[in-house]
Specification:
Structural class: mainly beta
Number of helices: 3
Helix content: 10-25%
Shape: elongated
Radius of gyration: 25 Å
Strand content: 35-45%
């Protein structure tokens, strides 16, 4: 019997500096806790920082301490000792990563367990996720980037592989996403707009520019459809969803519009269509126009996505 041995060639380009450990550490967990030391070799909550926050690494050694929470004490937990705003804190090893620079995902990306298109794909990272790049790989003319990120489902730091083209090391891309995340949580409307306008004004990559514009409209409840993209029509159609669920009716076309009510779809009721955008939108893999409809039974009027209308 002949033995056939298949060799897979992997070209590994190590991006980290192998001669010196990074002096920076980045928080990967959103609202990541910074903890302060107590009097009994333990640490307790002090404050939180956003994902992407740069911290100064005070020591390259992993510190073992007890984690004290309001409900329980966890023994022998691994921490990084860091400096932030001239204060010493401890960051759980599973929440942050040492690195010279931070990167950001610029397009929704499949996660691979190995740098190969045939490897297991078990999840996806959304646009705007902060990651730490580790190394680049090429297999069969496909470039992969090894990244470390925070898995929000399991609450732990993980290392996986993504298409290298979907990872940006551009500092302006990273900064713009940080400003966007600050805008999402800002309570003051003027401050929210300032964060968003600063993010939009940065010279980012094409993908991040488009993402910022979309999120800008959503956060400020601004429709991405102007008056000149809306046309008057006259017709009727059935409302329909695969599971018979209710359909959101919005005050403006697009997901930035406020939900002003819902219409039943279980019995495929008729609605009158009065207006339509002449620019299509894409939602959950469906591409269609937005329609301004009127439900004669309830009197409710507003915009719904065209994928939920069956025309005769």
């Amino acid at each position: 019997m002949k033995k056939v041995i298949v060799f897979f060639s992997l070209i590994v380009l190590i991006t980290a500096n192998v001669f010196s450990a990074p002096s920076k550490i980045f928080m990967l967990r959103d609202n990541g806790p910074l903890r302060k030391a107590n009097d009994s070799n333990g640490v307790e909550w002090a404050e939180t920082v956003r994902a992407g926050t740069e911290l100064e690494l005070a020591s390259e050694e992993i510190v073992i301490k007890d984690l004290v929470t309001s409900s329980k004490t966890y023994q022998d937990v691994k921490f990084f000792e860091v400096k932030y705003n001239d204060k010493t804190y401890y960051v759980q090893e599973s929440d942050a990563e040492q690195a010279d620079k931070l990167s950001v995902i610029i397009a929704d990306s499949l996660l691979f367990t190995h740098p190969s298109l045939s490897s297991f794909r078990n999840a996806m990272l959304e646009t705007g996720t902060f990651v730490v790049p580790k190394a680049s790989y090429n297999q069969f003319n496909t470039d992969f980037e090894e990244i470390t990120f925070y898995d929000t489902n399991d609450g732990i730091k993980r290392t996986r592989y993504v298409n290298k083209a979907n990872v940006s090391t551009n500092e302006k891309d990273v900064k713009a996403i940080m400003l966007l995340e600050n805008a999402k949580t800002a309570k003051d409307e003027d401050l929210k707009k300032e964060f968003l306008n600063n993010a939009k004004s940065m010279k980012t990559s094409m993908f991040i520019e488009a993402y910022i514009s979309k999120e800008y409209n959503k956060i400020l409840n601004v429709s991405s459809f102007s008056d000149d993209t809306i046309e008057t029509i006259s017709g009727e159609g059935h409302l329909y969803t695969e599971d018979g669920s209710k359909i959101n009716v919005r005050d403006k076309p697009g997901t930035a519009g406020n939900v002003i009510g819902q219409l039943e779809s279980a019995d495929q009721p008729w609605v009158t269509t009065l207006m339509r955008t002449n620019v299509a939108d894409e939602i959950d893999g469906e591409t269609d126009f937005w329609y301004y409809v009127k439900d004669d039974a309830s009197g409710l009027e507003g915009w719904i996505f065209g994928a939920y209308i069956l025309f005769p």
